[in-house]
């Protein structure tokens, strides 16, 4: 049984289930825990959160005479029906309405359009050395995590479409979405999912202090330029030091270029000495970087990126977290060009909840006659489907310029939003 009460009525031994308020308005990394110490209780009493949900099945109950709202998660109902019309259920008891890929791509395109100026302004503030306007960032994180909750494949696929000159801003948006999806796959609670998303959004903030000539150089960096580029993680950490940001988010900014074998920077940390959020950020950062067009190179196909990262995960990336990441985006991520057993080409339009090897694909080309065919969607995981993927293909080897339009009905609009 869950009960909602004022924080002043909390006592040691109660199990805190959820804060009623902004996920960043309280001083705890965890959003669910047993209140064990007077210090924890004092923090709760002094914080800005006024009400919380407690779980009386895991901790002490509310004393008699204390006014509280009672919710039964087994029946998804309030014990007092009179309260049900105006009181919010705890988030874990709410079932987020899922949406189709097509529906969520529409929402994701609108979200990208709103996010671009917000991120541009954030980086401009960082460059100027003034205070950072963080509340719009929090709202953006909420919108991104809500989109991931409705359909994790839409936004994480859409954010791969970037204009080169807007790479830095939109890379942060992409890593934010991937972090939210990965955290959700790992089974983290809502509070932790948002912390992960915030880490992704802010991880490259230090690039605001790097010369635009270096950031957008149309070729590989020389040793001097690369040494300057490597300072961005520490510079971002320093920018966030003066902000009321969770230390784990700041550490993700500082350590996301550390590598499991100790070969990274800035402090050559290794293994689990690298904080969890930083290890997650490293994976999401690398995936978006290698699949995106950069000033000096074209991005590789999503499926090829997964193959390369599988090799790197043996020494550079956290292998277990990478396995969870593959389950998040799929072995054949949305947008991948694949060859089918029937010698036809198709583009992946949605990951499967059943099998990583059997996504939904849109078939559009017959290889042997070398001609386009009427498009149709196949669910390779369907029991009556005998078709399967043989391999992924490099789009550069084929004369197609409309692959993005094939996998998303709203990609044309999305590209305009990302431009």
Automatic annotation (TrEMBL):
PANTHER family reported for this sequence: CYCLIC DI-GMP PHOSPHODIESTERASE PA4108, CYCLIC DI-GMP PHOSPHODIESTERASE PA4108-RELATED
PROSITE patterns: HD_GYP (PS51832)
Alphabetical list of NCBIfam families matching this protein: HDIG
Signal peptide: none
One Pfam match: DUF3391
Gene3D superfamilies per record: Hypothetical protein af1432 (1.10.3210.10)
InterPro entries found in the cross-reference section: DUF3391, HD/PDEase_dom, HD_GYP_dom, HDIG_dom
HD-GYP domain location: 147-341
Spans annotated as Disordered: 79-100
Protein name: HD-GYP domain-containing protein
């Amino acid at each position: 049984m869950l009960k909602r009460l004022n924080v002043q009525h909390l006592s040691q031994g109660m199990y805190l289930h959820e804060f009623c308020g902004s996920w960043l308005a309280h001083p705890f990394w965890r959003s669910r825990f047993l209140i064990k110490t007077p210090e924890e209780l004092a923090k709760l009493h002094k914080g800005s959160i006024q009400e919380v949900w407690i779980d009386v099945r895991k901790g002490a109950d509310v004393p008699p005479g204390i006014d509280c709202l009672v919710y039964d998660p087994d029946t998804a109902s309030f014990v007092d029906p009179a309260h049900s019309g105006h009181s919010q259920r705890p988030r874990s008891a709410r079932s987020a309405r899922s949406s189709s890929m097509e529906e969520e791509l529409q929402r994701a395109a609108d979200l990208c359009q709103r996010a671009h100026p917000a991120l541009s302004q954030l980086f401009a503030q960082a460059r100027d050395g003034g205070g950072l306007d963080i509340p719009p960032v929090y709202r953006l994180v909420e919108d991104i995590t809500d989109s991931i909750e409705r359909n994790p494949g839409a936004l994480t696929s859409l954010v791969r479409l970037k204009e080169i000159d807007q790479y830095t801003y939109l890379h942060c948006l992409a890593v934010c979405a991937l972090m939210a999806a990965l955290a959700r796959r790992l089974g983290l609670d809502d509070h932790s999912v948002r912390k992960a998303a915030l880490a992704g959004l802010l991880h490259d903030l230090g690039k605001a202090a790097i010369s635009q000539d270096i950031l957008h150089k149309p070729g590989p960096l020389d040793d001097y330029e690369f040494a300057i580029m490597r300072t961005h993680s520490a510079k971002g950490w320093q920018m966030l030091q003066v902000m009321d940001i969770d230390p784990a988010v700041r550490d993700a900014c500082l350590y996301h270029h550390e590598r499991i074998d100790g070969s990274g920077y800035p402090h050559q940390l290794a293994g689990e000495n690298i904080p969890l959020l930083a290890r997650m950020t490293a994976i999401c950062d690398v995936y978006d970087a290698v699949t995106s067009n950069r000033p000096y190179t074209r991005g590789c196909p999503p499926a090829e990126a997964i193959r390369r990262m599988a090799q790197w995960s043996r020494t550079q990336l956290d292998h277990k977290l990478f396995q969870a990441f593959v389950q998040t985006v799929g072995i054949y991520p949305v947008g991948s060009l694949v060859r089918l057993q029937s010698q036809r080409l198709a583009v992946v339009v949605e990951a499967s909840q059943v099998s990583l090897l059997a996504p939904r694909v849109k078939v559009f080309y017959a290889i042997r006659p070398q001609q386009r065919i009427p498009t149709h969607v196949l669910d390779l995981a369907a029991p009556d489907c005998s078709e399967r993927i043989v391999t992924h293909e490099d789009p550069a080897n084929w004369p197609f310029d409309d692959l993005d339009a094939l996998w998303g009905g709203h990609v044309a609009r999305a590209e305009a939003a990302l431009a």
